[in-house]
Predict the structure.
Amino acid sequence: MVQTVASGDMRGYGDDNETPDRTEAEQGVAVIAELYRRWEEKRRG
């Protein structure tokens, strides 16, 4: 599971809805993928 906190870590507080948000998960995965891409670029020089 991937959960972003782009809107703040209190987003969803008090909201009982536990339905997965695919768009939010895909955005979170894209951020992580970009970080790994940058680290690989730095590693290679």
The longest helix spans residues 22-44. The chain is about 50% helix and 0% strand.
